[in-house]
Q: What sequence folds into this?
């Protein structure tokens, strides 16, 4: 397969870095597809085991899925080769003299992406400020520290024991409920629990129905949405135990369906977010998927930036901020732009009529309640946030 | 189903409707950046009248005398009936037309065809069509259907559709067409229809719109 736009040494380093980021994104999407495919195959096996009558259908599904997986693996291999050639996996660009101070994103053998891979925008701007880079470096390194050296965290956070935090209390109380623990000086920095966050969002935004799912549960539900749209809004489906929750679904009737994935499952760290129309359904409905409608595509792109911002500025409360911000979109199709005061505006560069899809996400101060009340058209956004 | 609005063209007092207007309306649509033509569309409507079995007996009062049958472009396998007096809508398989022909309890009195061009514009779909009276293909009116693909709730899409309607009206006025597009206002609750948009809503819109088209074309003749 001919790799398109092979970045030769003639291309400027920003372009090479941008292409590398692009390919990494593609690889992540392929990996997500492969994961989903594996889930489906597993499910087909389980079903045919429980229900021998359905084993033929399960066999068909498995074969179909196998083809799809094979294709995804081939694509992944191609993308991997391209990345290898461009030096992402080996840090080759680093040693070249004229790299303009940029480095290719480096993917370590354990899968972590290092150095300037944190923020896409930087790839094109050689002149990003030192403050930005320092901030992003801090974020990336603290992410990695949390992931690989959990024992170096503060005692009360104790992330490596995440899976034993159960709600409601179970027979094995290995850890106390965090909110009632004896507070240290730093207790205000405690991470809230998933159940509490969801409860407070439900009271804050009663028009939005929140449900939680495990990963496999969600893929089944996404498929069922393609076949039959529920006529009336389903009741909120909160899992009994929050350990395995990997997907949070927020539905505002008639307005949107938003998916937020958590990584690792059961934690309160949002991983990805995507907006969809309430009448969409199918296997492409997941937190790294993309809606077919332009309005939701643009909101999702903007949401990615909001998520990165929340993660870097207030990691403990990133999920709360994100969910509040998402709930403010209930008025997506009714709230006028705060600048031009109209609902629909023609975006000249995109040649589309869109409602205001940019809702600023900057946080003012730590303890002030955000209401994310303003909305702007793409062309009316006064700053590139 | 995604939300639709239906408008018809009201020519200015004293002017007649010609095919030129249809071409001009399409030109307005094509003048927006990002609009792409998406093929043709065609729907049809039949006005049925009850045929009494026995001429001497009075017709039973609970049966409707008039019936409108509609075949929609986006549902080729279905046929919808609208009973305006009783405010009822029936959704059936398209083969019911053969049944109607065989039964002869209702006879088709006259027929109207809608046909024209379809456009895609971002999340909107526009369909501009001529309203042709069947026997002699006389142009009775021009209709425009606007569909907003992301939403299925009439309530939530109200503002978006209103603004689109304003944008469309301004564009038509600025291109100096001899008339304006008027939106078909329907109280769906009277027909027992809810907030979630369905083909039944479309059928009601067409039923109301055609009545207005015929009224305005009779006035102008």
A:
């Amino acid at each position: 397969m001919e790799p398109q736009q092979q970045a030769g040494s003639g291309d400027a380093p920003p372009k090479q870095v941008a292409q590398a980021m692009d390919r990494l994104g593609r690889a992540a999407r392929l990996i997500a597809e492969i994961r989903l495919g594996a889930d489906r195959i597993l499910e087909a096996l389980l079903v045919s085991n429980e229900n021998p009558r359905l084993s033929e259908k399960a066999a068909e599904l498995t074969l179909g899925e196998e083809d799809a997986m094979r294709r995804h693996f081939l694509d992944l291999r191609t993308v991997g080769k391209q990345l290898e050639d461009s030096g992402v996996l080996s840090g080759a660009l680093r040693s070249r003299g004229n790299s303009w101070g940029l480095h290719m994103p480096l993917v370590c053998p354990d899968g972590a992406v290092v150095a300037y891979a944190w923020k896409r925008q930087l790839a094109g701007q050689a002149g990003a400020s030192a403050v930005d880079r320092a901030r992003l470096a801090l974020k990336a390194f603290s992410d990695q520290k949390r992931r690989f050296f959990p024992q170096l965290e503060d005692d009360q956070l104790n992330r490596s024991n995440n899976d034993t935090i159960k709600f409601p209390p179970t027979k094995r109380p290995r850890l106390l409920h965090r909110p009632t623990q004896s507070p240290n000086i730093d207790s205000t920095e405690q991470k809230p629990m998933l159940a509490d966050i969801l409860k407070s969002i439900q009271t804050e935004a009663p028009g939005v129905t929140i449900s939680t799912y495990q990963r496999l549960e969600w893929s089944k539900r996404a498929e069922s949405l393609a076949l039959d749209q529920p006529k009336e809004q389903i009741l909120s489906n909160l899992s009994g135990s929050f350990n395995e929750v990997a997907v949070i679904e927020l539905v505002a009737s008639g307005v949107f369906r938003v998916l937020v994935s958590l990584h690792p499952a059961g934690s309160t760290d949002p991983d990805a977010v995507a907006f969809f129309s309430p009448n969409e359904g199918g296997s492409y409905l997941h937190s790294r998927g993309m809606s077919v409608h332009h309005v939701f595509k643009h909101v999702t792109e903007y949401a990615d930036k909001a998520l990165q911002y929340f993660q870097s500025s207030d990691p403990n409360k990133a999920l709360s901020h994100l969910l509040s911000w998402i709930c403010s979109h209930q008025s997506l199709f009714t709230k006028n732009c705060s600048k031009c005061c109209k609902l629909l505006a023609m975006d000249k560069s995109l040649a589309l009529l869109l409602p205001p899809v940019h809702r600023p996400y900057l946080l003012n101060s730590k303890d002030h309640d955000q209401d994310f009340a303003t909305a702007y058209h793409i062309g009316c956004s006064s700053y590139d946030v | 189903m995604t939300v639709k609005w239906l408008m018809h063209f009201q020519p200015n007092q004293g002017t007649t409707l010609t095919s030129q207007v249809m071409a001009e309306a399409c030109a307005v649509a094509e003048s927006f950046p990002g609009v792409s033509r998406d093929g043709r569309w065609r729907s049809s409507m039949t006005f049925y009248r009850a045929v009494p079995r026995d001429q001497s007996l009075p017709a039973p009062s609970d049966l409707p005398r008039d019936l409108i049958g509609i075949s929609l472009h986006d549902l080729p396998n279905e046929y919808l009936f609208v009973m305006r007096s009783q405010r009822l809508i029936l959704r059936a398989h398209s083969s019911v037309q053969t049944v109607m022909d065989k039964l002869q309890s209702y006879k088709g009195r006259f027929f109207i065809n809608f046909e024209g061009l379809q456009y895609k514009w971002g999340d909107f779909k526009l369909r501009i069509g001529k309203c042709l009276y069947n026997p002699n293909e006389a142009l009775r009116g021009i209709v425009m259907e606007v569909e907003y693909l992301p939403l299925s709730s009439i309530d939530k899409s109200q503002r978006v559709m209103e603004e689109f309607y304003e944008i469309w009206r301004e564009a038509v006025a600025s291109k100096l067409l001899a008339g304006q597009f008027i939106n078909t206002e329907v109280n769906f609750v009277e027909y027992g229809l809810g907030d979630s948009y369905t083909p039944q809503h479309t059928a009601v819109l067409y039923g109301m719109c055609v009545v207005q088209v015929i009224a305005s074309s009779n006035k102008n003749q």
Remarks:
- Residues 199-220 of chain B form the longest helix (22 residues).
- Chain B touches chain A through 23 residues (CB under 8 Å).
- Chain B has a mean pLDDT of 87.
